[in-house]
Design goal:
By secondary structure, the protein is mainly alpha-helical. Helices cover 70% and strands 0% of the residues. The chain has helices at residues 6-36, 42-56, 62-69, 79-98, 105-121, 128-160, 166-206, 218-234, 237-246, 252-272, 278-292, 300-328, 332-353, 372-380. 54% of the residues are buried.
């Protein structure tokens, strides 16, 4: 068994950096709805999510084994390929974070790995059947299933609680949101933290440190769980704003339905080794819960940009990974240049993000005004049942303008 070389050490550190970006990129999956509905304060929410992500990393290794021994053929893959794949994934993660788009960190990693492997050893290095059955099919099916489940759960929730006191039930649903958000965080740790475990394990196999087919060593599990927990604690406030306020306006009932549906889908997929995107699942659930409430609408302009990002993630990260691998194949100077480009790209993106920062203080501001389609739908759709906040004790005449009232003055309600 060989010792860990300098290059292998750099790859492991880069993998943990990706895991860190995965954490703050995907915090929104668990906590955006909880923050937007006021069930938890932002800092409390991300701290809770960080702890549960760390716990979830220890619950399973099925997804890690899919990545380390199923996605690409281990034979003939050099350690530099893993480094190039991580460069592509990190740059795409940072770019979509800058734009506030909840794209898939998982697919960024897969795309970077596939692109780098193809550049290094050709298409034969990729296990096409695994890509289709455990990546592409779940990518299409999971958000649809979660969205439909959330829509039905939302409708059922409003029907059951339609005659109950809304203020009393809202407290119960907020408590349910906290529990379901914790479940999503736990599920995220079981799925996304394992992807970095799988990458590090694959790097250790290519470096001859462990045998092919080995489970992730304990130190890999601990380091990957810690990295994603730290990233989660920082909070990806840009994407939290998009998920919590940019897609739809959520009530506590909807948040509870969305998070429960998403957590169920993620935990089930982790159990059978499907490496699905928690971002896509949670986004689908949020949209489903928005459509499930009478009077609720989805901001399709934001959703469309998000769908485009989903479609571009695999090929874009793949091209970036292939380009990085082209450089690393040139030798030591190519590896150094690739690392320098990664640092420079990350620095530029960070500088651009400071022009219009999104922080814990402004995360619940509207992401963007409603579009034409959303406004039209809201105008023709009856509002949801809920408590009447106005004073109805007065005479009905006070709501109707007098005959001699100015025609341009709005009615008082």
């Amino acid at each position: 068994m060989e010792h860990i070389t300098l290059l292998l050490g750099i790859v492991i550190v880069t993998a943990l950096v990706f895991d860190f970006t995965n954490g703050f990129h995907d915090t929104a999956n668990a906590m955006a709805t909880t923050i937007s509905t006021g069930a938890l304060k932002p800092k409390t929410a991300v701290a809770m999510s960080a702890v549960l992500n760390l716990v979830g990393a220890f619950l399973s290794v099925e997804v890690a084994k899919t990545i380390s021994g199923g996605l690409i053929n281990e034979e003939g893959i050099r350690t530099e390929v893993i480094f190039a794949a991580l460069v592509g994934a990190i740059l795409w993660n940072l770019l979509t974070w800058l734009l506030g788009l909840p794209s898939s960190s998982s697919h960024a990693l897969f795309g970077g790995l596939i692109g780098a492997a193809v550049m290094s050893a050709g298409w034969s290095s990729v296990n096409g059947s695994t890509v289709v059955t455990k990546v592409l099919i779940p990518a299409v099916a999971a958000p649809v299933v979660a969205g439909l489940a959330a829509m039905l759960a939302t409708r059922l929730t409003y029907r059951i609680g339609g005659r109950a006191d809304q203020r009393a039930t809202a407290k119960g649903y907020r408590a349910g949101q906290i529990a379901s958000a914790g479940l999503v965080s736990l599920a995220h740790g079981t799925n996304d933290a394992q992807k970095t475990m799988g990458i590090i394990t694959l790097a250790l196999v290519t470096g001859g440190v462990i045998a092919p087919g080995s489970n992730p060593p304990t130190w890999v599990i601990v380091s990957a769980g810690t990295a994603i927990a730290l990233g989660t604690y920082l909070g990806g406030w840009r994407i939290i704003r998009t998920m919590g306020k940019g897609l739809t306006d959520l009530a506590p009932q909807q948040g509870f339905a969305a998070q429960t549906s998403a957590a169920t889908a993620i935990l089930a997929s982790s159990h059978i080794g499907f490496s699905l995107s928690t971002t896509q699942v949670c986004s689908g659930a949020v949209m489903g819960s928005g459509l499930g409430r009478k009077g609720g609408v989805v901001r399709w302009s934001t959703a469309t940009r998000m769908f485009v990002a989903w479609g571009l993630t695999l090929p874009a990260a793949g091209l970036a990974g292939a380009a990085a691998e082209f450089l690393t194949k040139q030798g030591t100077w190519g590896i150094v240049l690739t690392g320098a480009l990664l640092v420079a790209g990350a620095g530029i993106i960070w500088t651009l993000s400071r022009r219009q920062p999104v922080t814990v203080d402004n995360v619940n501001e509207a992401a963007e005004p409603a579009g034409v389609v959303t406004t039209a739908m809201a105008a023709v759709t009856p509002p949801p049942a809920g408590p009447v906040t106005g004073d109805l004790s007065g005479d009905l005449k006070t709501t109707i303008p007098a005959p001699d009232a100015e025609p341009t003055r709005p009615a008082t309600v």
